[in-house]
């Protein structure tokens, strides 16, 4: 008797859907430094610039590091539903412009947003199929040193940020991946993030991002 062969039909030319990568982590962990290195490497991602009402630091550039806007303008954008998420962090407002994210995904571009832990939790509720990466400090002592070297925090604020960081690390369960960012080895963190994106592109069942 001739046996019949059952062969699954492989989707050889299946479309690769764009990814939304959410990078988060405690204050001072080096999110901006990692993003800057990824941009320098020429990795093909659309980087969404976060809005903030906090004062611009001397080394920061408007519309490159952040969109620096007034508190009134920020509240107007909330009212008009123009933000994907927003949060008040240490007395300043931060938010992700919804239209910029939608525009990037609609043109098929992998997109990365940088948010705090509150922001990541908010996006998780709206877009659970996004990729959530937690940037972890090597140790709390190194995080303290990094914050002190910024020379932007009073002793009281420094202690507050460290206590907040400890609480934020306990929310690691909200994330898909964790990447340790060692201060003198940023390229390793970038390599880990790129490996995560590569692995996600190889998923048998692609993530479905709809905004």
Poorly predicted regions are none
Rg, nearest Å: 19 Å
**In CATH terms, what is the fold-level topology?**
Rossmann fold
Task: Kindly state the percentage of residues in helix.
Answer: 25-40%
Q: How many structurally independent domains? A: 1
CATH structural class = Alpha Beta
Order of helices and strands: EHEEEHEEHEHEHHEH
Report the principal-axis shape: globular
Describe the protein in words.
The chain has 211 residues and is of the alpha/beta class. It has one domain: Rossmann fold, CATH 3.40.50.300. Helices cover 38% and strands 18% of the residues. It contains seven helices and nine strands, in the order βαβββαββαβαβααβα. The strands form two sheets. The protein has a five-stranded parallel β-sheet with strand order 2-7-1-8-9, sandwiched between helices. Strands 4-3-6-5 form a four-stranded mixed β-sheet. Strand 5 and strand 6 form a beta hairpin. Helix 1 packs across helix 7. The longest helix is centred in the C-terminal third of the chain and has 16 residues. The N and C termini lie far apart (54 Å). The model has no long low-confidence stretch (mean pLDDT 89).
Main traits of this protein?
Rossmann fold, 211 residues, globular, five-stranded parallel sheet, single chain, 7 helices, four-stranded mixed sheet, alpha/beta
């Amino acid at each position: 008797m001739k046996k019949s062969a059952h062969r699954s039909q492989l989707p050889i030319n299946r479309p690769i859907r764009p990814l939304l990568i959410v990078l988060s982590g405690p204050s001072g962990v080096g999110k901006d430094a990692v993003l800057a290195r990824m941009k320098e490497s020429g990795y093909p991602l659309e980087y969404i610039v976060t809005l903030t009402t906090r004062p611009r630091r001397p080394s920061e550039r408007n519309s490159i590091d952040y969109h620096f806007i007034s508190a009134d303008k920020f509240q107007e954008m909330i009212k008009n539903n123009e933000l994907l998420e927003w949060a008040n962090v240490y007395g300043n407002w931060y938010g992700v412009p919804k239209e910029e994210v939608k525009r990037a995904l609609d043109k098929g571009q992998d997109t990365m947003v940088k948010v705090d832990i509150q922001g990541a939790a908010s996006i998780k509720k709206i877009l659970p199929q996004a990729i959530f990466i937690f940037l972890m400090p090597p140790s709390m002592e190194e995080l303290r040193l990094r914050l002190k070297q910024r020379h932007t925090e009073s002793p009281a604020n420094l202690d507050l940020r460290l206590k907040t960081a400890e609480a934020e690390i306990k929310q690691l369960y909200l994330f898909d991946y964790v990447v340790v960012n060692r201060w003198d080895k940023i390229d390793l963190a970038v390599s880990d993030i790129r490996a995560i994106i590569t692995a996600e592109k190889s998923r048998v069942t692609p993530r479905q991002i709809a905004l």
